[in-house]
Amino acid sequence: MTNNKPSIPFLDLHKINSRYHELLKNRFSDFLDLGIYIKGSFVEKFENTFAGFCGAKHCVGVGNGLDALTLILKGYIEIGKINPGDEVIVAANTFIATILSIEYSGLKPVLVEPDEKTFNLDVYQIEQNITDKTKVILPTHLYGQLAQMKEINAIAKKHGLLVVSDAAQAHGAKNNDNGVAGNLCDASSFSFYPAKNLGAFGDAGAVTTNDAVLAKVVRDLGNYGSSIKYENNYLGVNSRLDELQASFLLEKLENLEDDNKLRGQIAKQYLSEIKNEKIQLPFWDGSGNHVFHLFVIRVADRSGFCDYLEKSGIGYHIHYPIPPHRQKALKQFSDLSLPITEKIHEEVVSIPLNISLENYQIEQIIMTLNQY
Ligand SMILES: Cc1ncc(COP(=O)(O)O)c(C=O)c1O
C-alpha cells in the first residue's frame, strides 16, 4: 500500500469507538475509584454475561485469543483427555495463531485444505486426514462464518475426538438451531483484539465451554497454574483478562447483536450490487451464520486490483498474504503442497466492511469495484 491515506479507510477504529467515549470515561473513573485492577467484579460480570450471550455454561477471561486457544489445548492435556504429540486437524488457511496454539501445546498440527467456497475446514478433508493419533478437530470460523459444526461434531463423535473452535472472528454467529459460536463444540476461544466485532481497547480474550473441569483448569493455567495464591498445580502462564478491558467489553457487548446486523446489511448490499466478472464474491447463505468480521473477495490479478483501489482511495487489507506453511516460523511444513490454500492466499482481498461506513461510502466502494 502507498503512504497516501485512503479517503475510505479499511477500518476507522477511532470513529467506531467514539460512541463509547463518554461512557468509557465514566467507567474509567469508576475503575480508578474502585482501585481493583485484576480479578475483580468487572471480569466476573463480563464472564457471566459473555457466557450467557454464547449460551455456554462457563467463560474464562484471558489475555488474548492466542492464549485462549493454547490454554484450552494445554488444559485438555492437564486433565488427561489428550497427550503431547497427538494430532490436531486444522485448516491450512487459518490465521497463524491457530497453528501456533497447537505448537505451543506440544501437539501436532495437521494442515488440511479448506473448502474453497467458504474458506472453512473441509469436512471431506477431515475424514481423509484422521489417523490413530488424531485427537482434536480445530475449526476456525474464518472471516466470521461458522464452520460446518454439525458435520464436524458428527465426525468427532464417530471417531471419539474433541472439537475446539477458534471463534476469534465470529462473536455472535448463529447456526440454524440458534446455537451461537462459543457453544457449538467442546470448547471455544475468542479474541477481543480491537478490530474484532467485539473489540477491546487493547488485547483481551476468552474461553467458553460447558465443561466445568476444563474451565477451572484453563482459569488456573492462565493464573500461573494456581487457584490458591502461591500454590501452583500446573506450569501455568500469566494470561488474565484485566478489569478495565472487561468493563469496556461489557459496554460494547450490549451493541454486538445490532452491530452484527448492520454488518450483515452491508454484506447483503455488496453481494447484490457488486457485479463484476473479475471479482469473486464470498459465499453466504444469508443466515446469521456469518457475522462478516471481514468481507473477503477474490481477484486473479490482485496486485493490479490493489493498485486500482489505492488510486481510487479505497482502503483494503489482505487476510492473509502468506499461508502458514510458507512462513519462516513454520518451516517444518514448507514441503507441504496445498494448492487451494496457496491460491486463496494469492487472490484474497478484504474490502471495508464495518459499522462506521456511511451510505455514500458503501455506494462509492460498490461503484469503484463495478468499474474495475
Ligand atoms: C482466527 C484468529 N485466531 C486467533 C487470533 C489471535 O487472537 P489475538 O490476537 O487476540 O491473540 C486471531 C486474531 O487476530 C484470529 O483472527
The count of helical stretches stands at 13
Sheet-strand content, in percent, reads 5-15%
Q: Which fold does the CATH topology of the largest domain refer to?
A: Aspartate Aminotransferase, domain 2
What series of H and E elements makes up the topology? HHHEHEHEHEHEEEHHHEHHEH
Query: Which outline best applies?
Result: globular
What count of domains describes the coordinates? 2
Give a topology summary:
Layout (H helix, E strand, L loop, with lengths): L12 H6 L2 H14 L6 H14 L3 E5 L2 H14 L8 E5 L4 H9 L3 E5 L10 H7 L4 E5 L10 H11 L2 E5 L20 E5 L13 E5 L2 H10 L21 H11 L2 H18 L21 E4 L3 H11 L26 H9 E4 L7 H12 L2
Parallel strand pairs: 2-3, 2-4, 4-5, 5-6
Antiparallel strand pairs: 1-7, 6-7, 8-9
Helix pairs in contact: 2-9, 3-9, 4-5, 4-8
Describe the structure.
- The chain has 372 residues and is an alpha/beta fold.
- The protein folds into 2 domains: 16-113 and 120-253, Type I PLP-dependent aspartate aminotransferase-like (Major domain) (Aspartate Aminotransferase, domain 2, 3-Layer(aba) Sandwich), CATH 3.40.640.10; 255-370, Aspartate Aminotransferase, domain 1.
- The protein has helices at residues 13-18, 21-34, 41-54, 65-78, 96-104, 123-129, 149-159, 212-221, 243-253, 256-273, 302-312, 339-347, 359-370, and strands spanning 58-62, 87-91, 108-112, 134-138, 162-166, 187-191, 205-209, 295-298, 348-351.
- The strands form 2 sheets. A 7-stranded mixed beta sheet has the order 1-7-6-5-4-2-3, sandwiched between helices. A two-stranded antiparallel ribbon has the order 8-9.
- Helix 2 packs antiparallel against helix 9, helix 3 (41-54) runs parallel beside helix 9 (243-253) and helix 4 crosses helix 8.
- The protein is globular, with a radius of gyration of 21 Å.
- The two termini are 18 Å apart.
- The model has no long low-confidence stretch (mean pLDDT 97).
- The structure holds pyridoxal-5'-phosphate.
